[in-house]
Specification:
Blueprint: E1 14-20, E2 23-29, H1 31-43, H2 49-57, H3 73-86, H4 96-119, E3 122-127, H5 134-147, E4 152-156, H6 157-169, H7 179-187, E5 191-197, H8 204-219, E6 223-228, H9 232-235, H10 243-250, E7 254-258, H11 264-276
Parallel strand pairs: 3-6, 3-7, 4-5, 5-6
Antiparallel strand pairs: 1-2
Length: 279
């Protein structure tokens, strides 16, 4: 395929998602025009910050900010109480340590985001059980970075796995592209977000692809932000990400924070369940 820049007949080996005629399309460019198109996309003022956050994290997090992320103790006690009520009195009790981990994650990431805005590099890794607000915090940090003029791309790990599998089953589908084109596209932005790294992500192929991406950000001193329900030690297992990738993620400048406590998501489901039953 030729480069899709006008009057260019060079091979179009570099993919880029662009807005064309009001629609998102995957176009291919030669190296020089790929960089030009990337700069033009980054400088476009047609897309609001809210729209960009929604495209990266979903509509639920469109308005996510550090200010809207609650860390007051009574809020978490109420979450734990809702879960216990829905379970007939059993369920998790929130501890002072739980609250401290969430407050620390928020305040530390706020400070580190200022460093990333200034230095244009750094790694964020938030880990802990589902439903604690890891995605909200990543969206809040991304909002600040986009506001500072940085480009961003976000991948949910299940989506990445599905996309890679699709290249195997549809090797000639230009819309899907090749694995290497997917990896190159992931290296494009100033900020790369990898969400929800969990057990199902670790085939040999996916492990190698994640290492290539992490290593690229590491060598080029970019910004990588990640969330997982596994600890760094668990991810170092050779059957998961392995030590080489994880040590790059943890190397300073980095913000690595554990979050514990009752699940927002579980509390919401518990509330909806009791409401539906008339309790």
């Amino acid at each position: 395929m030729e480069c899709q820049h006008p009057n260019c007949s060079e091979p179009g080996d570099y993919p880029l998602i662009v807005n064309k005629d009001g629609e998102k399309r995957r176009l291919f460019f030669c190296l020089s025009h790929h960089q030009e198109a990337k700069r033009l996309r980054a400088s476009s003022s047609d897309v609001s910050v809210e729209d960009r956050i929604e495209s990266l994290f979903g509509k639920k997090f469109r308005d996510a900010t550090f200010s809207t992320f609650r860390t007051d103790p009574e809020y978490f006690r109420r979450i734990a109480r809702k879960i216990r009520e829905a379970k007939g009195g059993s369920g998790p009790a929130v501890t002072e340590e739980d609250i401290a981990t969430i407050q620390d994650a928020k305040s530390s990431l706020q400070r580190f985001t200022q460093d990333m805005k200034r230095e244009k590099e750094g790694t964020v890794f938030l880990f802990g059980p589902n439903g604690l607000g890891k995605t909200h915090l990543l969206a809040a940090a991304t909002r600040k970075l986009i506001g500072a003029g940085l480009t961003a791309s976000s991948w949910h790990m299940t989506s990445l796995v599905t996309r890679v599998w699709a290249t195997y089953s549809e090797p000639h589908d230009q819309e899907i592209g090749t694995v290497q084109q997917i990896i190159e596209a992931m290296k494009e932005p100033d900020v790369l977000i990898l969400q929800d790294i969990n057990e199902m992500c670790f085939s040999n192929d996916i492990r190698e692809y994640i290492f290539e991406i992490v290593d690229s950000v590491y060598r080029n001193r970019g910004i990588l932000m990640m969330s997982a329900n596994l600890t760094p030690e668990e991810l170092m297992d050779p059957e998961r990400l392995g030590t080489p990738a994880v040590t790059r993620i943890l190397e300073p400048p980095s913000c690595v924070k554990k979050m514990t406590g009752p699940s927002h998501r579980q509390a919401r489901k518990a509330y909806e369940k009791t409401s539906d039953s008339g309790a």
